[in-house]
């Protein structure tokens, strides 16, 4: 069944087109990511799903029901906010039980449900504390428990891991994924971190300037970007110019090439090659990032750190397989 | 820079500060002293003798009680009106953006910046033009104009500290507007409202200027005191009442001070 359906949805703020004619279909049980730079419309899309914004035009359905005009408190959708938005005057238990309390569920029943939810996010026994006494990571888990205790049909997450440090973020990515699979709830999450989107989501919608640039599986979005923006934003692909494409015998005007598909080596049989000079190099841990200047076009190469690094300014030959070169639209 | 802080202040500065404080507060102590004097017609110093009889006299005078109850009633109702209107106004100004927001904010604060005499004259002419007879309610209205300001100022400061996402989170979790107000907004602005209400009560309780323009035949406590000073009989009764006024206004102001000081921890969403 379709969990969320957007048909030609727009949201304008005055002259600003925050969301511009967006179509999307999110399936039930899917882990869906909306990826894009700030101001690209991804958060506004999330707020349209939550009901904090109403569309200027178009049609939204959540589990087959029309969503326009339905206030947030009548939607079977819950949100984990970017700043967590825990109620500072309530204990952790009362925070988690809030949704059940306003629905009029009895004290004992909601206490039990809240404690179960806290155990699920690995914070058992934290119920008596206040939000101010918890760390950022713990507050994030409370926000998650507070949303999930209501058994929403769709869980919306607005940059949920943005405020956490790298180690905690990786751990939470893993946990969120496991939680989503075990609960079977549709997760829709917003992020500007392409690594997060690629590692967690079943499908990704890449947003730019209010529109979806590409919608597909992480592999599709990463390996076959359809537009220059996607190539650039998701993992910084190389964009080969028209001239370069023509010299390689390609018909498309632009093509993308992932840095890790390129090797600094003479071409083996059937591979394509280009000659250039080393423009710069930087050490990234597992790989070296070496930028090669080919007739004025800069092509980044991700080279394994074990391999030697040619000196800056020295002439090199780069090679890559023809199937790694992906033609794309100019947008 | 640190050493400058711990340096003791020069003697001259200490003396000047002491003299300034004495100049402000000794007259108040004198008022307390004359509540106990045996001499009832003039304030001669030192008092010829000390007595507590004026407390009994003040207690048994019906005009004192009439003025006191009127003042308490006016202050209570003006405060209640200010609490409702001031909170609503603060909510509108701090939570939404609309055309003329800054202007409304300024207009609400204006009555406390305007001299009381202007407010008084304006209200008086407005009441006569509208043919509203001067009564208890005209006093309440007059006082409410400046009581709203203190409630508004306190509430608006607290509203600004409530993150907008708290209200959205409450709605998201299934609470409608009333539930969100009751369970989320009210607990977070409660102490600010209490403090604002206390200040408003204290302001109304000792207000003279606006009251003289908006009152009919009634005398609030401060007006009564003003009239009493002209009469050369039982003067210490005025001093006894003055002590009561100090008590009734000072305690709420002190309370408001402590409430808003602690407010930082209550409303702090972060650490």
UniProtKB/TrEMBL annotation, chain A:
InterPro entries: AAA+_ATPase, ABC_SmlMolc_Importer, ABC_transporter-like_ATP-bd, ABC_transporter-like_CS, Mo/tungstate-bd_C_term_dom, P-loop_NTPase, Transp-assoc_OB_typ2
Molecular-function GO terms, alphabetical: ATP binding; ATP hydrolysis activity; transmembrane transporter activity
GO cellular component: ATP-binding cassette (ABC) transporter complex
Keyword tags: ATP-binding, Nucleotide-binding, Transport
Top-level taxon in the UniProt lineage: Bacteria
Alphabetical GO biological process terms: putrescine transport
PROSITE patterns: ABC_TRANSPORTER_1, ABC_TRANSPORTER_2
Pfam family, one: TOBE_2
Presence of keyword Coiled coil: no
Record domain ABC transporter: where: 4-234
UniProt similarity note: Belongs to the ABC transporter superfamily.
Protein name (database record): ABC transporter related
Species assigned in the record: Sinorhizobium medicae (strain WSM419) (Ensifer medicae)
Higher taxonomy: Bacteria, Pseudomonadati, Pseudomonadota, Alphaproteobacteria, Hyphomicrobiales
TrEMBL record, chain B:
Domain ABC transmembrane type-1: 68-258
Sequence intervals crossing the membrane: 12-36, 64-92, 104-123, 135-159, 180-202, 238-259
Keywords: Cell membrane, Membrane, Transmembrane, Transmembrane helix, Transport
CDD domains per record: TM_PBP2
Topology relative to the membrane: Multi-pass membrane protein
Compartments where located: Cell membrane
Annotated Gene Ontology cellular component terms: plasma membrane
Listed Pfam families: BPD_transp_1
Swiss-Prot/TrEMBL GO biological process terms: transmembrane transport
Source organism, top-level taxon: Bacteria
InterPro entries: Bact_Polyamine_Transport, MetI-like, MetI-like_sf
Family: Belongs to the binding-protein-dependent transport system permease family. CysTW subfamily.
Protein name: Putative spermidine/putrescine transporter subunit permease component of ABC superfamily
Gene that encodes the chain: ydcV
